[in-house]
Amino acid sequence: MHVQSIFTENAKIGVLSEGLSVSLNGARVLNSTRIQISCIPFSTANSLSAKVEPSPKRDWVVQGLDVHICMPFRLPLRAIEDAVEDMIRALKLVSAAKRSILFPDGKENSKKVKSGASSFGSVKFVLRKLTAEIEEEPIQGWLDEHYYLMRNKTCESGVRLKFLDDAISGSVDSNHCSSEGKFIYEGIEVDVHDTAALQRLREEIHKKAFRSYYVACQKKVFAEGSGACAEGFQAGFKPSSRRASLLSLSASELDITLTRINGGATEMVEFIKGVDPVCQEEHIPFSRLYGSDIALLAGSLVIQVRDYTSPLFSATSGKCQGRVVLAQQATCFQPQIHQDVYIGRWHKVKMLRSASGTTPAIKMYSNLPVYFQRGEISFGVGYEPSFADISYAFQVALKRVNLSSRVKSSGAANQPPKKERSLPWWDDIRYYIHGKIVLYFNETKWKILATTNPYEKVDRLQIVSEYMEIQQTDGHVDVSAKEFGMYISSLESMMKNCSLKVPSGVPRPFIYAPLFSLNVIIDWQCESGSPLNHYLHALPIEGEPRKKVYDPFRSTYLSLRWNFSLRPLQVQSDNGTSSPCYANNSMLCGSAFGSCSKIADVDFPTMNLGAHDLAWVFKWWSLNYSPPHKLRSFSRWPRYKIPRAARSGNLSMDKVLVEFFFRVDATPCCIRHATLTEDDPASGLTFKMSSLKYELCYSRGKQKYTFDCKREPLDLVYRGLDLYRPEVYLVRDVNSSSVENVSKLKTTTLPSQGKDKCTMGSFQEKHEDGFLLSSDYFTIRRQAPKADPARLMEWQDAGRNLEITYVRSEFENGSESDHSLSEHSDDDDGFNVVLADNCQRVFVYGLRLLWTIENRDAVWSWVGGISKAFEPPKPSPSRQYAQRKMIEERQNADSSRLAQDATSSTHAGSPSVQHAEALGSTSPLHMKYGMFDDLDKGGNLHFMVNVVKPQFNLHSEDANGRFLLAAASGRVMARSFHSVVHVGKEMLEQALGTSSLHIPEPQPEMTWKKADLSVILKDVQAHVAPTDVDPGAGLQWLPRILGSSEKLKRTGALLERVFMPCQMYFRYTRHKGGTADLKVKPLKELRFNSPNITATMTSRQFQVMLDVLSNLLFARLPKPRKNSLQYPSDDEDVEEEADEVVPDGVEEVELAKINLEQRERERKLLLDDIRSLAGTGDSHIDHLSAEKDNSFWMINSEKASLVEGLKRDLLNLQKSRKFASSALRKALQKAAQLRLMEKEKNKTPSCAMRISMKISKVVWSMLADGNTFAEAEISDMQSFIFEIFAGI
User: Fold this and answer.
1) Global pTM value
2) Which residues form the FMP27/BLTP2/Hobbit GFWDK motif-containing RBG unit domain (predicted)?
């Protein structure tokens, strides 16, 4: 301990010291410029008003100006503490032995000293600034710091060398070059053909870069260090003060008061029982108890990892009033071992101590509510190597080490062999930390980086909120926030690779919610069956230690349940209760949530989602969930002077995790489609719903999990999506770029009149602008056989109070059409019935769809963009080209062996193969020996769509009418069949047209596949409504009328019936089969069946129906749009529809793609160089005019001149990229034309199709003035169309 000066008048009252420094083994652990310790008498409330005896208690106050605490590099703190403890214990034993010798009778006249604990009141720490840090390894800090410094200088010198090479090659202005190819540099003539002179110029650039690097190194302020590395190899590296710490904690205006708990040990035990139910149930005794009430005030608190851009945690205006108790479980007498402790040179004390691992640990029980005004938290996968270093620093500091300099075996060398492995860090947290910790923030900001670079400033996911509360208890974490907003940098990350521009305007939130809550339930399981019982050591009543202490507590099972909830603001209703109500004329506002009062401007959860946003989120999640291997496993790799520790043998966290449940509940919810271009047909597409619930479950299956059991991979076993009263609009009149319209959608509700309900559909029946579709209820379910039904049902029942069930209040006694359903149970056929067969079941109730050209283009554009976001990333064109060339070379190398194998094959090289291909599906394999019939049962069911009461409003633009198609129910099923067929000799001979066919002994087999898509519509009826009669009539729907009401007209005022309710059945089948040698062309079948259709149409109705079929349903779809995952640029002229026609492997197209890829990479490198120089450069451009007159201006120019030169190169590169893009477009067009010509020349049919139609009765009547003047009738009509053609 070193003190510069000490001031005191009475040491019992207080001491003031300056320049205090405390060191251990030559390493400084604490230093302070000024610190004062004072003792204040304990004050009472009535001590001045009456004669009260002064209390013996004293309050201690520690005041400091600047206190710095350091954990030196690789200093064994626990070993030092153990050595000091053993020495004190040995001295006590020696003094007791001396005392027994001096006073053998035991009559020592010593005064009894009162215990100081009773006179101890409270301790108060008042510190202006407190800094606690873990010292960084010097070589690590020095290398990191100088790497980034040298990288910047290398980038600058690389740019200068590039410009020098361009000047030498003559690609710049040649006005400064003589006819002999000579330049003037600093008054010296330089010949471009003189290699030595040019090499001197390059060396001048390198020298300038080194001088700049040297000057930057001299400007750094070196850290003083703790002194732990004053000698040896590490002493030669001096990191700067910014890089001296691995982890630092800084607090300002810190005021901490520790007060004794009234009631002593009894009150502490009661407190432990209150926060730990296991202690209450098991009546756990404690041997040692330490505790106090804590009052904390802090101006600011910052936790910084190294010198990363954002702190790990920072907060302002902290306040806390809580209690902390440290307790040690009482246990039985522990096994003892002998230990030798040396005192001085000649004395040795042999004493007993407890064997390692038999003493219960001291655990923390707390109740800490902490308040902050503003908090900021940041994290990224680039932080994980630092966390590994932090873990290693604590491992070294807490490791047991023998520090004896006399005899290395003087320590605890007689330790019994270790029978159990140590606990992993998550079990250590369950073992040591208990109680309740709550964090309150008035404002928060969360930053989760989207790159591996911890110094990233732009590309990140950012969450901002106003009030936030985070509560942690054993097994639970609850988070609630107000004005929750999530922002992503998808647009910035796209623009970073193609432009220097920065997105302008206020960023729109990706997710916005007035009220946000997150509930995480952590369920552990272990061998003991009681994961909450952390009292592992034997109790005193047991009498002997337990054979296994940690193994029964080691976790073998982890189940995580994440429940997200997004809600609107709480509003006051008429009955005085506060309920989450929302306002929307087209949403249910009375029946589901009670009567709502008149509310204006109510915010509700909103999501602004585009294809580029979705792709960015997938990339961000993939990076954080599965980062590069060396980042997450950083501690396992060999490092300099760090011994490879033996693996603990514990299961990793991803193996312990057995179940993961995920639920998002947004009530209500609005999703707006975000576009990159203004001409996107899907611009303004808006989804609104009363409730959205999305559920996911990942599981390893149902089994008993032990430490050594085999664990299946964690797979998705359940997925569910519930949308209550969804509606889709095309909002064209709202400015989508407006921040208010994007971030907060506000609507107004009307007061309810009488018993009328604000039912969905009232808005659409009067207004049709922008309407696309609506539904009462929409669900998606999928469950795998691997799922555990009991656990899944338990999780769903736990969240059942948040689930909105389907209520058939208006339809349970009647129908909305002109007839009643034959079976009322068909409405709910299969609803919420999920079978564990991996089939995706979709249920749609009350679907209303308005299908126009504009809506079709919007849906087509939206689906195309979203589907691209779900596609896996493709390799670059250069990688694809290299892979294809490698495969071709491998095939050429093995061509001789493959040729020999081909000659021994039955059909290889036979001309009858082409004949079989020409026969296609006309062979007897399809006609006579069909493997499937119309009554196929089973198969692999992929998805099923059940629709109840759908209505399709098809708009006819030319005929000024709408064709309304409605049904009572419908079902769409997609199945696939797979079988292996044994092919006989006569079948092959007939199929190949030859009789001299040699068949080997094994009977040949052929795989046969069939894909089947079936559509069943029940009670279908159609109406036609004109749109030029009453423009204000709006959309025409079949009204909802209860079956018990009076017989009223079931159709609207303008609806004209086309055909009566009937059944319709569509089936599309695709057969595909063959072997590698015998290829059979696929057969496509399309079947339509309607046994009881009766249609009556006028010429006007027939015109509308024909126009709908020709110009809407069978009209050609719009061309695919350009890639929605790339930022639009002016030179983008590659058409994607041509790319779909051209197959892979066209040499010219691949070379053109590689050329374009090279230009894009060069552009990215140029943009990175410009940002690097502009970010670290100066702003002086005074020498620009002088530099323009110098041919070698790049050698001594400022950074601003280099940036200007790079920008000129960027413009030229963009022109070159445009030429490459144009060349690619021409190559695609040429390849597409060649592809079409090859198809025309190829006479072999590419596919075959069979269309069958069966109608029992067809009646055609022609009317004039309501009277029939011509009629035709056909009974039992069957039509079969079978064709083989090249394209379909």
Assistant:
1) 0.84
2) 307-457
